[in-house]
Structures are given as C-alpha cells and as structure tokens.
Write a structure and sequence with these properties.
Blueprint: E1 2-8, E2 16-22, E3 29-39, H1 41-48, E4 57-58, E5 63-70, E6 82-85, H2 95-98, H3 106-114, E7 124-125, E8 131-134, E9 144-148, E10 152-155, H4 161-181, E11 189-193, H5 197-209, E12 213-218, H6 221-230, E13 234-237, H7 243-250, E14 256-261, H8 266-274, E15 276-284, H9 299-303, E16 307-310, H10 318-330, E17 340-345, H11 349-357, E18 363-367
Parallel strand pairs: 4-8, 11-12, 11-14, 12-13, 14-15, 15-16, 17-18
Antiparallel strand pairs: 1-2, 1-4, 2-7, 3-5, 3-9, 3-18, 5-6, 6-10, 7-8
Helix pairs in contact: 4-5, 4-10
C-alpha cells in the first residue's frame, strides 16, 4: 500500500510530504486509514529538537480513522470500524496495566522512544527503500498507518472524525489530569498555567468537576479568551502580572487546592508549585526538555504538606476513558466544537505547526485524505 505522509528527516527542518510504502498488518496488527490528525505540541517538541527522536520518522499521535485491513488473530476490530489510536499502547499484562496505570506500560514506552513496533521493525518505507520510524506507535501524519491492534480503540461510527481526533490526546490528557492524577472536588479552587490544547481541557474538566474558582494563566491573550470560553472564572496575563502573586490575591492569600502546569518548562512548574496552598496538589502535565530542572522549596513538602506529581496521558485508562469522553460530549458536558480553531489539508501541515507555534489556535487538525 502507498500513502502520502509527512516525514521528519531532521530536527529543525520542515516536514517533507512524500509518498511512502505502508506494509500490510502482521499478526495482531491493523492498518488504519487516517481521517483526522491532531496538531499537538508534543510533535512540535520533536520537530524543534527539544525532544530527541531518531529519524526519519512519521510524526502524529492524535487522530481518528477507519480500519482498512487486519492481521491474523485480530479480534477487537474489523475492517470498516472507526477507531482512535492510543499513543501509549499497553500490553494488558504487566504490573502497570494490571494496576490500572496502562500509560506506564513498558511496551508502550519502548515504542515511544525507539520508533519501532514491538517486533523491533517498522512498517513504513520511503522511495529509496529505507525504513521510516513510527511515532508513539501510531504515526497519524500518514494517510495510512499500520499499528498494533492494542494501539486502537473502536468507537461508534456516529462520532465525527474531528471530534474523535480531539479526544485522542488533548481532551483525554486534560480530563485525566483533573479526574485521575488528582481529584478536583466541587467547590475547590484550580489554577492552570498554559492554556493550549491540554490546558483548555483541564479548565473545562475542572468546571465539569464543580470547581468554583478556575484561574487560567497564559502569556497569549487569545489563549486566555479560549480559557474563558471553556469555563475559567479568572484570567491572569503572565506578561503583565506575577502569576503566583495574582493567584494568591484571587484566593485570599492561600493559593489554590489544585495547580496544573501544562507547558513543560521549569519556571511555570516552579510557579505552579508555589501557588499551591497548604495541603494542595500540584500536577505537572507539560512535556519538558530532558535537561529541564525545576527549583522546588522542599521544606514545603513537609511543613505545608504539598504534593508534587507528574501525569502522562492524564493518568487515564484510554480504553475506558475515551468512550466515557464520547458519552460526556454527547450529553453536552464536554465542549469539543469550541476547541477546534482550524483544519488543514495534510499538504499544509508545516503551516499548521507554524500557527501552533505562534499561539494562534486552541487546537487544529490536519485532514490526511485531503492531500
């Protein structure tokens, strides 16, 4: 099979649009025709070189599509089924999977860092016959992608591909940070530093959970406006105000019950921790460069009984939580339409990432079948 794909050959260089060969699915694998793919900061980190990955590689980890072909032994999906790829595939058997923490599964972690399928091979080839690596096991920036059966969740055909793609990463990560990494209770106070795709979903899930004070912090006025639409009760422009002082002023000097950092930089992590009240919980969701180090007042862990924790994939169980989010959207409790700012054909993927880097969008999608 052939497909048009966006290939990263070198960090800090544009993605290259080219036709690649997609190998058919082997045992326990499926091939998915991608219908929508999310434009996410995680891929941008790789493109910029902040997150090192071997190349050439086809990026994209957030998406939705249609199963085209299945390999031997596949039982959970059939050709024609609609699916959301899981960018942290789990084996279902290890201590993390059995303990309800599938995002920590070693199989998914290995796929993420090696760019290889579980058998140590790839399913993409370029025109020169060279292997192209997979990103997070799913590579949604290709019109077709072969992946493990365990890396896809069947969804109702009534769900639009645009909505499904949004749910696959930004929505579920923000939702899980609020509902699983910490438990925001009715009447609690929340601060969110970074109002991109994940931060906006932390905001709207905090609203869903019943938080009465939701403080959005960002440097980009447009992102703060998006946060207000999602349910933020207060907005803090970090270019004009000290975020920690502003949050404490809004909470009677105490700080918030739950602070979330959704950028992935040392300074906002420190700020999120400092604006957390006594006994509160600070959750780091943003992906930071490997060399990043945050300076934390360790005494506050003891004297103030603060909790500092990280969360990958929202600490969720994707096979369950993706379907829960679909139901919540159907009930009008999760807003997906306001998240989607723009769509682009696959041929304009570099323009899509330039807009993301400039902070112009809440969330955008590329539509692989549009070329």
């Amino acid at each position: 099979m052939q497909a048009l794909a966006a290939v990263l050959y070198q960090a800090k260089e544009p993605l290259v649009l080219e036709t690649v060969e997609v190998l058919p699915p082997g045992p326990g694998e499926i091939t998915v025709r991608m219908m929508a793919a999310g434009v996410c900061h995680s891929d941008l980190h790789v493109m910029k070189g902040d997150l090192a990955m071997k190349t050439p590689i086809i990026l994209g980890h957030e998406g939705a599509g249609i199963v085209e072909e299945i390999g031997k032994g596949v039982t959970s999906v059939q050709p024609g089924d609609h699916v959301i790829p899981i960018w942290r595939m789990s084996c279902g058997r290890c201590e993390y999977c059995l303990g309800g923490r599938p995002a920590l599964c070693d199989v998914g972690t290995a796929m993420r860092f090696t760019g290889l399928m579980p058998d140590g091979q790839t399913r993409f080839r370029n025109a020169a016959g060279e292997s192209i690596l997979h990103y997070a096991g799913v590579s949604t920036f290709s019109q077709r992608s072969t992946m493990p059966e365990a890396a896809a969740v069947k969804i109702p055909t009534s769900v639009s591909f645009e909505h499904a793609a949004l749910i696959g990463c930004g929505v579920i990560t923000g939702y899980g940070a609020v509902m699983h990494a910490t438990r925001v209770m009715p009447g609690s106070s929340v601060a969110v530093i970074g109002c991109g795709g994940i931060g906006l979903n932390i905001v709207q899930t905090a609203r869903l959970a019943g938080a009465t004070t939701i403080i959005a912090v960002d440097r980009v006025p447009a992102k703060l406006a998006y946060a207000k639409t999602m349910g933020a009760t207060h907005l803090v422009d970090a270019c004009e105000n000290d975020p920690v002082a502003a949050v404490k002023d809004l909470t009677g000097g105490r700080g918030v019950d739950h602070a979330f950092e959704a950028i992935g930089l040392a300074e906002p992590i420190e700020q999120a921790y400092d604006m957390t009240k006594k006994g509160g919980i600070c959750v780091v969701v943003g992906i930071a460069p490997p060399e990043a180090r945050a300076r934390i007042n360790v005494n506050q862990l003891v004297y103030a009984e603060k909790t500092l924790k990280g969360s990958i994939y929202g600490s969720t169980r994707p096979r369950l939580d993706l379907l829960t989010l679909i139901d919540l959207h159907a009930q009008g409790k999760i807003d997906l339409d306001s998240l989607l700012t723009r769509t682009y054909p696959l041929s304009q993927i570099n323009e899509a990432y330039a807009a993301l880097d400039r902070g112009e969008v809440a969330r955008s999608l590329v539509m692989p079948q549009e070329g």
